[in-house]
Amino acid sequence: MLQMVQRPSPIPKIIHHGDKQLRTAIRCFSTLKDGDEKVTGNVVSPLSSFGEDNSGESGGGFTGSDNSSATSSSTTSTSRAVNSIASLNGNKLTQPLTPPGPETFPAWSYEPRPFFHFELLYESKKSLARVGRIHTPHGIIDTPGYVSVATNAALKGRASQKKNGRDFNENAVKVNEEGVLFRSYRDGRKIPLTPESTVQAQKAFGADIIIPLDELPPYHIDDAILRDSVERTHRWEARSLKEHLKNVRNQAMYCVIHGGLNRQLRKESVNYLTSLPFDGYAIGGSLGKNGDELMELLGWMMPMFNEDGSNSSGEVMQGHVNRRNKPRHLLGIADEPSILGAVRHGIDTMDSCYPTRLSRHGTLLSREGKVHIKSGRYSRQYGVPVDRECNCSTCLHYDRPYLWHLFKAKEPVFVQLATIHNLQYMNDLMEKQRQMILEGKI
Length: 442
Hints:
Keywords: Metal-binding. The protein is an alpha/beta fold.
């Protein structure tokens, strides 16, 4: 029997294959069980819908570790992707170009999920900030909360189980209505990926929260091409949702809001995707070239998620869901300044490789500012932890000179110790944000 222990901030895990310009791979959350510090995966499911699979396996034929992993990915070659409107492998497109409306989904899919829900505890009177809990089958996520990002199916600087699954590659060959075609960097074989197959993959992993296949075009792009991309992503997400609803299996699915900095497209994306029976909302797409553009976009967009979707009689009708009662996730943004701003705009969770990337490059986070451990100034600060207020195992057992020595000696254990601390710092930061909201300071 699985024994759950209550934690202040269980860390859902996401796996990225690089922070590139085209999000075209499997992405999902999976909350930690007691004792878990591991991720398995690195999987792509073989697909028959493209008419070719050079792997020699049939569709859906891979295994993952139940309820223990999560996958997220971004890929390169955006310019090739947005210009590629021909069919993959020479096949003609078979998917309709009009996204299905809310009436095409079963009525039961709009009903509350007994295994997954968002509990809204408190809303700030000073901002859109709020405190809540995301209840999943394997734990509770306190919000606002931070989500770690793993690359190549492993959280860098943390222990990992043996990887199960097949090779994945970051180079998209073609993108069209059917999905995405990748070429293996190992043997050159073509690996197809569809909205349906990514859902199957995440279900096999046992993800608590599934995020569908979506396309992320570059920052500055022609509005016509951007619209085509957004509308294609809408169709992909609807297909993903239909695939998910065939066998829900106590798993949730978020949609991904797109539109770049184009407010009309963002509004259309919010209105369409929130009309479908998704369990939560992820904010994706290009979010601006700097923090100011991000905050401006969130400041304009997030009030739309406070609409309750009810009619004049106060009834929430099919296709008009209550947006306030569903969690909101910000994709790929979790540096400290962005976190502080996003929380004030009503974001519940966010993910980034920010703290683990800093660890690999010798930077540790602290309440006194960043500690660039390679600096010789830390080599003689004996008995001084990275952060005097931190209770992580790194700060409790190791001082700055020892960490400086490990970094200079290129000892792999440094990355582990730094990652333990930086993740604890992020969790402490989110706990402080929750407390400040409850105290009316935010």
